[in-house]
């Protein structure tokens, strides 16, 4: 690892030295200032500031500030799209503020589209939404995908807990587009398709994050979201689920160097936890037993159905370890209401990013380096991130130019917290946070007493001892010991880079050649120490991936009077290679805590693989415009995939669109811009490499000889890529000189011939058939409304609102199959049912008779001793919910007053359901507040039924006779655990996601300082969960399954609120 880092430094340092040597430092006066709009005084970022008569200059920053070195008698030219060019003579001044006048003839908005092509937004026939890079870093969010929450219509973002150390941010565009529900978009950085692989859930509840997050947010200029097939058709097989286009920042031609610093300090505090009961201690019985005259607890229990915490003196778990200060002593039996909250530490993150840019009339560059240090909220968890990037642009001559980019990322994490509950008391489930704190614990525990985990005799102390005098763990090890010693470690190196050559053949044609690559090396190891209850073990894996793209493109652009014609034709070769190695010890470790595969008692398990895949493509695009009013777009792409059968590996994907800017025919003081658009497109998705190959599989080792087994699945030899066909129509309107805007879109998308695996008769010699099947029709609407209600010389209020609704209906599965289960967890299955919306949740629910739940008498079967219980009967395979939301949206408000700015970002979701294991087992084990209280008799629900206690149960007997009775506390809660429908919750929420209050120093103060910009800000992320239909759990942070489906809250981390301080400096 150290050699790799040294090699990286050896490459970057000389490159930086050569670039800096090309820059001439000016000796003239430095002019600073701010550029604003003369209409309302709003600041203008990105304004070009050129020294007249030269190609030297700069651009204004995000706050409209600029700084440039010039001779005292020079003239400056200020130009910006939508405004008139303005010339100013310096005249020896050092501060020059400029107000630009609007130019109604220059209002074209340019966005980045497929293959990195920039186009005027007015000409597009499909929906594209762009987010400025500065909006991604305002609040210090380390993962730019999380910063997209609520900002793009039709894009659903599921964020991880802040304690997850860079966990996965799941992105879904326009609902479910496949049978499996796994519909991740394609990520493209500066024209380079990159991997967004995700290794989460691959080894027992670790979230290693998705690879797209390796891009430094501070390097992002903008993000364009291509939502539908018409926008992404040029990506062919890979564009079915939409595309996230990332454009990184470039250098600027200027005198001297431009230096920017962005520093963020943030603090994570627990904000959302379940409500716990604080009346009863751990145990199965409310009766205390005695040993040598002292009251003792049921230490072996990991539930809280024990005695009332009334202050009686008892022997706690730590009184049974000889030689300790608590040995033989008693303490009051009292609650610890904040024991879970206090277990978590304050997470502290600091990040520093510095960027240098400059150049001359021929060459520009931008070099940046970012460092992030994370001390996690979970004890013994930490992480470090290093990002470096270099972007060079050079004009070799009037015809030839070259662009070179390289992005390097190194991420390392130790003690990454586990999530989820496996249902076992072994392995890594013993250090997963949810089961330890919310489900299987005792409410009187003081977790601080577990920090000193080693007893005088060297053994490990735990609260869950087998019994008095026997300190062997019954179920659970000491969590602090496990977190410190069963420490998982993972590290990833990533390099994304390439070279682009552009050659201008003549005024009409130009040629572009591209060679770009994406390489990652992910290393993961996990361990179980020798002193743990589970068998000691060491696990290690390495996964490498390299994706290389070669592209050649011929561009053309020509205007014939009122007709403009532009487009391109070209081809691409994509090569993918993945190499993996995995191993773990078997039978334990031969020496205590020797974490090495060589330490395996038995022959270690070792496996390795190599996967190669290639896609060859040709494509073309043409856009014809008439009088900047009517535009016709057509694209075509053909892919040949090595993963498909040779006889069936070529597929053609077309698109066509028409847009009409009708405002060109209207002269109105109200309507500034109006356009209608419509498009049609087809895209697809192919198989993974080797899925069609009927090869033998490794069967392990017999003695010293390897064995192989026959696959139990058969692949249809005529299998083909899935196909998505979409029709999209929309309208874009702007009013009152662009002060108010509306963009509305309607689409219908039919997804057919997905890759499906179905069970077949064993008589065929196989158990599964992999073939094409399924038909899912998605229909939806997207609305974006934005405007500036108030604009004065000192005050501006900008607002942006978006709303999206999508319905995905399963119209066909395969043959006569009407239901198809795609995954399941803890008694809940995600099922596709023909004719129903995608993602039906099915499980057990109350057996009903004439609208009443059916109950029956039951003898005591769970520690209570009560014999007169009533319990609910259940019925399996009932519909209990649906995964997908009814609609999603967001609201962003930005207010600025003089140097102050305030931004508020809110997002929301209506509908959708999820299953909560925290609620289910927390209720069953007596941990939650719902397990205490008084029944209708005014008696504690935990008291005996014979004493008037118990939970009231009402319904009908199996013969229909109405009945009302009671069930003892624990027996009732565990009866309810078996009713999975009772633990399905509404995923609706309204959340104030981000708050930022900032202040920028005015130019009058900056004139006497060595800075061109000084901005300070206070930030809050996850500021306020305004509305939720479930307490103690954040519905917006339900960790997705490996398929990307967020339906199962499996005992995750709590919700955190993050407070931050941000400092931005410009030199």
Describe this structure in words.
The protein is mainly beta. The chain folds into four domains: 2-107, Immunoglobulin-like (Sandwich), CATH 2.60.40; 121-269 and 348-417 and 488-824 and 1011-1066, Maltoporin, Chain A (Beta Barrel); 280-334 and 419-485, no CATH class; 825-1006, no CATH class. It is 6% helix and 49% strand. The protein is built from nine helices and 60 strands. The strands form 14 sheets. It has a 22-stranded antiparallel beta barrel. β54 and β55 form a beta hairpin. The radius of gyration is 32 Å and the shape is globular.
Q: Pairing-aware structural class of the strands and helices? A: mainly beta
Rg over CA atoms, rounded to whole Å, is 32 Å
Q: Mean pLDDT, rounded to whole units?
A: 88
The number of distinct structural domains comes to: 4
Helix content: under 10%
Question: What does the main sheet amount to?
Answer: 22 strands, antiparallel, barrel
Strand content: over 45%
N-to-C CA distance = 35 Å
């Amino acid at each position: 690892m150290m050699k790799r880092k040294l090699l990286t430094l050896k490459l970057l340092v000389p490159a930086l030295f050569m670039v800096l040597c090309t820059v001439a430092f000016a000796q003239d006066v430095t002019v600073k200032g701010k550029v604003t709009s003369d209409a309302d005084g709003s600041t203008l970022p990105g304004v070009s500031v050129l020294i007249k008569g030269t190609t030297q200059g700069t651009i204004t920053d995000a706050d409209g500030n600029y700084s440039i070195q010039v001779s005292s008698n020079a003239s400056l030219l200020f130009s910006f799209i939508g405004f008139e060019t303005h010339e100013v003579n310096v005249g020896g001044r050092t501060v020059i503020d400029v107000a630009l006048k609007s130019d109604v003839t220059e209002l074209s908005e340019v966005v980045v589209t497929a293959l990195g092509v920039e186009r005027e937004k007015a000409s597009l026939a499909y929906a594209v939404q762009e987010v400025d890079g500065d909006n991604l870093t305002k609040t210090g969010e380390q993962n730019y995908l999380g910063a997209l929450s609520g900002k793009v219509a039709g894009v659903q973002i599921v964020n991880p807990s802040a304690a997850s150390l860079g966990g996965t941010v799941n992105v879904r565009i326009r609902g479910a587009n496949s049978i499996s529900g796994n519909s991740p978009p394609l990520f493209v950085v500066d024209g380079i398709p990159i991997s967004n692989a995700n290794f989460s859930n691959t080894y027992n509840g670790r979230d290693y994050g998705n690879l797209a997050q390796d891009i430094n947010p501070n390097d992002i200029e903008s993000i364009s979201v291509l939502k539908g097939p018409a926008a992404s058709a040029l990506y062919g097989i890979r564009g079915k689920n939409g595309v996230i286009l990332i454009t990184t920042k470039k250098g600027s031609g200027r005198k001297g160097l431009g230096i920017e610093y962005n520093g963020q300090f943030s603090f994570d505090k627990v904000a959302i936890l379940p409500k716990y009961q604080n009346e009863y201690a751990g145990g199965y019985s409310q009766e205390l037993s005695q040993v040598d005259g002292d009251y003792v607890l049921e230490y072996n229990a990991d539930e809280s159905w024990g005695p009332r915490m009334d202050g009686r003196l008892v022997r706690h778990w730590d009184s049974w370890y000889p030689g300790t200060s608590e040995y033989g002593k008693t303490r009051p039996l009292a609650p610890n209401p904040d024991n879970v909250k206090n277990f978590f530490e304050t997470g502290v993150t600091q990040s520093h990013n510095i960027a240098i840019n400059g150049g001359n009339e021929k060459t520009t560059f931008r070099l940046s380096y970012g460092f992030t240090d994370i001390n996690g909220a979970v004890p013994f968890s930490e992480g470090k991130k290093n990002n470096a990037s270099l972007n060079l642009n050079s004009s070799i001559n009037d015809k030839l130019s070259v662009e070179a980019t390289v992005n390097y990322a190194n991420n390392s994490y130790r003690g990454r917290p586990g999530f989820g509950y496996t249902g076992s008391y072994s392995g890594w489930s013993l250090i997963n946070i949810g089961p330890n704190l919310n489900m299987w614990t005792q409410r009187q525990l003081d977790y601080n007493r577990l920090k000193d985990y080693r007893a005088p005799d060297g053994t490990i102390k735990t609260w869950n001892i087998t019994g008095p005098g026997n300190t062997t763990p019954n179920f659970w090890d000491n969590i602090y010991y496990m977190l410190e010693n069963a420490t998982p470690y993972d590290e990833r190196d990533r390099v994304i880079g390439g070279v682009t050559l552009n050659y201008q053949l003549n005024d009409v044609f130009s040629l572009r050649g591209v060679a770009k690559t994406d390489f990652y090396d992910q290393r993961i190891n996990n361990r179980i120490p020798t002193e743990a209850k589970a068998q000691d073990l060491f696990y290690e894996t390495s996964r490498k991936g390299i994706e290389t793209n070669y592209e050649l493109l011929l561009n053309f652009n020509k205007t014939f009077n009122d007709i403009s014609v532009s487009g391109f034709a070209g081809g691409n070769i994509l090569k993918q290679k993945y190499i993996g190695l995995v191993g773990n010890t078997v039978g334990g470790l031969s020496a205590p805590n020797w974490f090495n595969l060589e330490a395996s008692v038995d022959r270690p398990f070792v496996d390795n693989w190599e996967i190669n895949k290639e896609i060859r493509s040709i494509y073309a695009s043409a856009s014809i415009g008439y009088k900047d009013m009517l535009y016709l777009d057509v694209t075509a792409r053909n892919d040949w995939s090595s993963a498909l059968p040779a006889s069936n590996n070529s597929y053609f994907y077309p698109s066509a669109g028409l847009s009409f800017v009708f405002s060109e025919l209207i002269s109105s003081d109200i309507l500034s811009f109006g356009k209608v658009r419509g498009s049609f497109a087809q895209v697809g998705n192919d198989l993974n490499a080797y899925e069609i190959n009927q090869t033998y599989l490794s069967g392990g080792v017999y003695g010293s000889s390897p064995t192989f087994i026959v696959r139990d699945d058969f692949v249809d030899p005529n299998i083909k890529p899935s196909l998505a066909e979409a029709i999209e129509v929309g309208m874009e309107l702007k009013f009152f000189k662009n002060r108010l805007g509306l963009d509305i879109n309607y689409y219908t998308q039919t997804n057919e011939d997905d890759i499906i695996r179905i069970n077949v008769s064993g008589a065929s010699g196989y158990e599964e058939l992999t073939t094409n099947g399924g038909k899912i029709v998605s229909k939806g609407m997207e609305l974006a409304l934005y405007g500036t209600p108030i604009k004065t010389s000192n005050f501006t209020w900008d607002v942006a609102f978006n709303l999206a609704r999508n319905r995905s209906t399963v119209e066909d599965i395969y043959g006569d199959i009407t239901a198809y289960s795609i995954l399941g967890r803890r008694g809940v299955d995600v099922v596709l049912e023909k004719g129903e919306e995608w993602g039906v949740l099915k499980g057990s629910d109350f057996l009903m008779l004439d609208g009443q739940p059916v109950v029956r008498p039951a003898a005591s079967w769970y520690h209570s001793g009560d014999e007169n219980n009533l319990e609910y009967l259940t019925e399996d395979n009932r519909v209990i919910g649906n995964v997908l939301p009814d609609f999603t949206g967001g609201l962003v408000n930005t207010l600025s007053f003089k140097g102050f700015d305030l931004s508020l970002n809110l997002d929301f979701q209506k509908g959708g359901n999820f299953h909560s294991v925290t609620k289910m087992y927390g209720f069953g084990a007596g941990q939650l507040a719902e397990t205490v209280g008084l029944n209708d008799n005014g008696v504690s629900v935990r008291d005996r039924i014979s004493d008037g206690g118990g939970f009231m149960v009402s319904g009908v007997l199996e013969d229909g006779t109405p009945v009302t009775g009671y069930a003892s506390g624990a027996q009732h809660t565990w009866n309810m655990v078996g009713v999975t429908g009772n633990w399905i919750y509404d995923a609706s929420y309204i959340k104030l996601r981000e708050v930022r209050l900032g202040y920028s120093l005015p130019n009058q103060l900056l004139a006497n300082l060595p800075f061109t910009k000084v901005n300070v800000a206070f930030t809050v992320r996850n500021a306020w969960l305004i509305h939720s239909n479930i307490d103690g759990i954040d519905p917006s942070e339900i960790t997705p399954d490996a398929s990307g489906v967020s339906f199962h809250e499996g005992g995750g981390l709590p919700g955190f609120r993050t407070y931050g301080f941000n400092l931005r400096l410009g030199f």
